[in-house]
Amino acid sequence: MFTRRTASRRRTLRHGALATALTALAALTLGGCGGVGSDLRGSLGLGRGGDDHTLTVWQFETKGSAAYDGFRTAVRVFERDHPGIRVEVVTQGFDSIRRNAKMLLTGDDVPDVMEINKGSSDGGQLAAQGLLTDLTPQVRARGWDDVVTGSMQNLARYDKDGIAGSGRWFGVPTSGQQFTFFYNKDLFAKAGVPVPRDTASLMSALRAFTAKGQVPISSNAGEFGLLQLWYQFVVAHADRAQVDNYLFLRGRTDFTKPPWSTAGRELVRWLRAGYLGTKLGGLTQNQMETAFLAGKYPLMADNSPVFSTVGQSADFDWGTFAFPGAQLTEGLTGQLLSVPARARHKDLAYDFITDVLAKPAQDTVGREGGLPLRSDPAVITDPRTRRFTAQFDALKKRDAFAYFPDYPVTGLLEFLESELQGLASGNVSASRFDHDLQAFYDDGRARLGR
């Protein structure tokens, strides 16, 4: 996420930590594992695994977010029901854990529960390498599949090669995500621009703001802003088979044909029209969101986990709407809670995951706009949050979610970010982007034997 794709996924692996990680990797290559894992954990601020009275949970949700607060509720329930057992929740940046997951899971000091990035390129490869516990028996015995239903299961299940969409369960999602437009009602009212309700009114609004000298959309090319928007252009005109073929490596995906080829061209048109501003390459997700919260832009296209941040920080009236006129919408489930193969306290880990999926934790997520998989509208008193959750539930009911774009093959997230920066700067054309993506994707498939 690409998850892709929120304040919780900001780059927190700084140069010093990266250097330490690379040093640890070199030591691992030269001398075997012998304690390297512990050194790496220390460099990332993760500490050691727990003792017999501690359940350790490593996660990367932002403190104060709906998902994080859901974890805290689950911790309180768990500790109440397990006297004498303490839960240690360790928070680290998404990239810090994701880039080093294999090394972190091969030592003796592994956590009992670890949040991982879903998709074939990350969670699937960890599963195929034997680093994650097969949760399938627990899913059935504990009724987790009564909460995680239908297509919501697709990125929790992986075959023997680590390809998502079928096979055994190696993680459990605990909330949902959806790409959405956030809009500043005050700026729309001041400019006399109607809030978009369909494709035509969206384009009319973008033109109207631009004509007034106002860049309409806060975005970035340094992280996920353009990536999310490009993929939404794809899935707006894609069908379920095209999306599933791409994500789960079924059939052939031809990026030189619609809807893929048209998405890059549409993004270039938006860039040239001034809808997204200039100098996007150096901007981060955090800067994009901060600029919107400062009231500098009428719109921001972003992933739903930022909903609670906007609610807490915006000092203007605001709302959300799904990408108008789209056949499918970018989104599905959040990241996965997994149990490492070498976890010490697996039964307790299963109990904790059960508590994260239970009503108290899910209600906490729902009240804060975090899109729970077990939704109870009765506990949501804020009208804006209730509408946002209803939007997610409606899309889920008609199976209209198209996942996120970076999951099929290893390294695709970094590749797409780099190519989209080139597209934003004008150094990469839309047709070159399509051809480069085809080559990278096909090579990744070949490496997976597909």
From TrEMBL:
Keywords: Signal
UniProt xrefs under SUPFAM superfamilies: Periplasmic binding protein-like II (SSF53850)
Cross-referenced InterPro entries: Bact_solute-bd_prot1, SBP
Name of the protein: Extracellular solute-binding protein
Record carries keyword Signal: yes
PANTHER family in the cross-refs: ARABINOSE-BINDING PROTEIN-RELATED (PTHR43649), DIACETYLCHITOBIOSE BINDING PROTEIN DASA (PTHR43649:SF12)
Signal peptide (from-to): 1-26
A Pfam family reported for this protein in Swiss-Prot or TrEMBL: SBP_bac_1
Highest taxon, organism lineage: Bacteria
The organism's taxonomic lineage, starting at the top: Bacteria, Bacillati, Actinomycetota, Actinomycetes, Kitasatosporales
PROSITE patterns: PROKAR_LIPOPROTEIN (PS51257)
